[in-house]
Amino acid sequence: MFTTLKTLITGANARAEEQLRETFSIELITQKIREAEANLKAAKLTLASLIQRQRGEQRQVEALEARIQDLMGRAGEALEAGREDLAQSAAQAVAEMENELAVRRQTLDRLEMRILQLRQSVETANRRITDLKQGAIAARATRREQDIQRRIRKHAAGDSPVEEAEALIGEVLQRDDPFEQGEILREIDGELNNTTIADDLADAGFGPRSRSTAADVLSRLQSKS
Question: What is the pLDDT of residues 131-150, one digit of tens each?
């Protein structure tokens, strides 16, 4: 039983999550784009830092190469002048600088490789974010169209404001006429009080009527004319 309940709860949670993702899909897309842009910004900062280090190492390499070339020239002049002691000192300095130059060139190569890889990653991420933004625009347009379609289907089902207004008008027009209803009530009261019997006799020509009729008014007008 516990396993069954656990399965039912898991299924209900999954359905609730799917419904939540569908309801807030546009908001989730926008948030994911923000996160992707934040990651891209961090990658750009890292790339800028690596490029800065690369340029610094390149300047150090160029400076060492210039110093080595200068010392080699001076050492050659010292040998020609018979100053082997000075030439030996220069040679020692050149050897140390050449070792440092080799290390810096290796560092420069590693930096160039990392920069190349990271630059490709940044370019790929930038293209994907651009595609995501275009997709988000299309998703918003689709969501608006879906909302319109839902409203149209709701109206087609008989719940539109126009149809509701038409139904209300029909209800008003179908209501009983209060004037006619009053006349009928008076007729009923007359029948109950036997007052309509006199009117029936008057209509047959026996005695005066208890109330004026349109025929009486028309007769008076004809007599005056």
Answer: 888 888 887 777 777 777 77
pTM over 0.85: no
Q: What is the 3-state secondary structure (H, E, C) of the chain?
A: CHHHHHHHHHHHHHHHHHHHHHHCHHHHHHHHHHHHHHHHHHHHHHHHHHHHHHHHHHHHHHHHHHHHHHHHHHHHHHHHCCCHHHHHHHHHHHHHHHHHHHHHHHHHHHHHHHHHHHHHHHHHHHHHHHHHHHHHHHHHHHHHHHHHHHHHHHHHHHHCHHHHHHHHHHHHHCCCCHHHHHHHHHHHHHHHHCHHHHHHHHHCCCCCCCCCCHHHHHHHHHHHC
Residue 17 is predicted with a pLDDT of 53
Number of domains in the chain: 2
Give the domain-ending residue among 129, 148, 168: 168
The domain in which residue 205 lies consists of 176-224
